[in-house]
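Q: I'm writing a short methods note and want an example of a predicted protein-small molecule complex. Could you take the sequence and the SMILES for magnesium ion and return the bound structure as tokens? Please keep the output block clean; save any remarks for afterwards.
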Amino acid sequence: MNRPEHNVFLQTGTSAKITRVETIPLLLPFHVPFKIANGAARPSVEILLVRLHTDEDIVGIGETQAWRRQGSSETLASLTRVIEDHFAPRLVGQSPFALPSILRNLEETIYHSLYAQAAVADALYDLQGKMLGVPVYKLLGGKCRDALATCAVLSIKPSVDETLEGAVEFFEQGYRSFTVKIGVDPVNDVRNVSALRERLGDEVVIRVDANAGMEFDGAFALLKKLEPYGLDAAEQLLPIWDVDGMAELARRVDVPLMADECVSTDHDLIQVIKKRAATVVQTKVAKNGGLWNSRKLWFIANAAGMRIFPGNHPGTSIATASVVHLAAAWPGPLLEGPFPVGISTLAGDVVTEPIRLEGNLVRVPDGPGWGFTLDEDKIRRLRADR
Ligand SMILES: [Mg+2]
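A: Understood, no commentary inside the block.
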């Protein structure tokens, strides 16, 4: 029976129970292979969708990615096994409105299984929103902004000209913040940053990101050379285990540092804060265990005077929407982060009307839950197990 969304809650109350946990492994190709400092260029990203079915026929959707790099060794198979073998028995029969106790239970079941927890946690938010007929940002207290600005991510290219060409294209679309991937060839890194500054002028924000691919000496030497170019932040130059090295680097260079790969949990963030190893933090809903945990990190970072850079691994409209709703309900300042990186780089999506960038802006969706409906045809074509 079709009922208007706003009546669903009145009709069903909150008595719905989760009946089934469905995992959907996907392989989404990039338009152009994605190159960061660690490893070879990546032709595609592995994504796992989770659908939580209920006895009220309302379905919640969550997303995570098996994006292997320092701090994540997940595979589609490992995520699927954790969710199906260990989480599903603890979810079936539960109310979607038991989110806090469910998440605590999942953490106790498989310690630090944040990538797997992310998809379940976010599917619970989507379910709650759909059951109440409200967007997720309303579950978080309400909307503070209608749209979010994002930055351009410039992946490692063979030549300065190609880097510049990509940047100018973004600039013409309205982008004024740029993250340049570095860490493979320091001579090329300095050329790229100096060319970008010269071409785009002093008004644009330039950040660099080495994806934990450098050692202390190389990172120190490179940042000293980059100091004259007015970087807004240098992101995760050192390996995730070297938070002391980051703190030393922070004291010795005139570039603010950003922590990304080294911050999975709230405890990690507190270590970064105590050591003064970074003044900017990047969150990602998959890395940090979903919207619930990401929001916790934002509160902690904000209380410590850090700036917040909303990121994401490359993902679909679902993982992007998670950040959009989180940010929509955030009252404080946010940097223009690369949270929709998957929207601009992936050659496919899984929803009927994917998130579209209007210049460098993403509008906050107003439909129930995330505000998106899965497209079954697209999913069939993108399945990793077809
Ligand atoms: Mg990063």
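A: Remarks, as requested: The radius of gyration is 20 Å. The chain has two domains: 5-135, 138-382.
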